[in-house]
Amino acid sequence: MGFNYRMTDRQGAVGLVQLGKLDSLLAERQYWANFYLL
């Protein structure tokens, strides 16, 4: 028995939208990391 790891069209569409938000998501993550660590 094998596995099917192929992405569906819907998953691909959601992934493309999330990639557009990547910079702001990483900036917010860094902000909160600095808030708690510094």
From TrEMBL:
Q: Which keywords accompany this UniProt record?
A: Aminotransferase, Transferase
Asked whether the UniProt record includes Transferase among its keywords, one would answer: yes
Where are the annotated coiled coils located? none
Give the Gene Ontology MF terms in alphabetical order: transaminase activity
Stored InterPro entries: DegT/StrS_aminotransferase, PyrdxlP-dep_Trfase, PyrdxlP-dep_Trfase_major
Top-rank taxon of the source lineage equals: Bacteria
One Pfam assignment: DegT_DnrJ_EryC1
Q: What is this protein called?
A: DegT/DnrJ/EryC1/StrS family aminotransferase
